[in-house]
Amino acid sequence: MARRCFVAHPRVSCVTLATLPTPLEAGGKLQSGANLWVKRDDLTGLGVGGNKARKLEFLCAEAIDNDATCLVTVGAAQSNHCRMTAAAGARLNLPTHLVLSGEKPKNLEGNQMLSAMFGAHLHHTGLAASDWSNLELARAELTEKLIRDGQRPHSIPIGGSTAVGAIGYTVAFDEIISQCSLQNFVADAIVFTTSSGGTHAGLVAGLVRARANDPQKVLPKIIGIGVAKGVALNTNRVVELANETLTLLGESVHATIADVIIDASYMGADYAIPTQAAADATTWAAHRGAWVLDPVYSAKGFSGLLGLDANGDFGVDSNIVFIHTGGLPSLFVMH
């Protein structure tokens, strides 16, 4: 049974899937002299961990509240979101259907292997990982088929990026600010990887809410490193989703385009295509703090942080928080 999440809003339901709060670790000095901090959302604990656990706590509560009989979602062949949705389905005894890019492989590896271990039904589409519009159409078609078959599916878009899912990162924003305070520093920027926009929108909603509650408080910039074309580069969509999230939380304040920063300089050719900068960032993170990044998502985001630092965006002794979103399983497939 879903419970009420009073830390977000008493009318919002949530289920416990993640081990929270995740650690905020000191990462030493960057090239510029800025202080690096790593928010370990790779350690959320659900199905090998990752940032999607925060969204799924609210998305799965929504499914339970709607008496869903199964979950449906969609993503790239090695989607961390899909793997974590499968894990959530196993935890909550909700059969899970995953609509995936690519052809069915001879042997399941990485996130697909884990998703199958969690009992998910894998539906391979043959589509490219970057073809989000047709992947979403395939999700809609499968959802309609399940309804015709008498099921009550709860259908979740790519990345779990709805206003309900974004609440997970509105709560996470408050968690980060609290942890910074406990460690006696103020964050100047929060840097993270953005693609479908839900994590980004949730953080922006958290920023806007905190600013309204205390206009004098010093709050960090929210900097998304874009790794997919389309939605990830659409600042208007992030603003829209952030405002939908604020409305769900009963807030009367609104985000604006000025609250959304997206830097797509580190994406490379397209989504799910590794870059040399990401490979270099993976090595840097492993050598510096034994942080394990994945080539599709977190490594590109961290390469963006290192690039911004090298370009002089961060001042000496400033405090930069990087949200480590996880993605370990795909490292063993896409290396």
From TrEMBL:
Domain Tryptophan synthase beta chain-like PALP residues, every copy: 16-326
GO molecular function ontology, one term from the record: D-cysteine desulfhydrase activity
Keywords, sorted A to Z: Pyridoxal phosphate
InterPro entries reported for this sequence: ACCD_DCysDesulf, TrpB-like_PALP, TrpB-like_PALP_sf
Pfam families: PALP
Obligatory cofactor(s): pyridoxal 5'-phosphate
Protein family membership: Belongs to the ACC deaminase/D-cysteine desulfhydrase family.
Name of the protein: Unannotated protein
Annotated organism of origin: freshwater metagenome
High-level lineage: unclassified sequences, metagenomes, ecological metagenomes
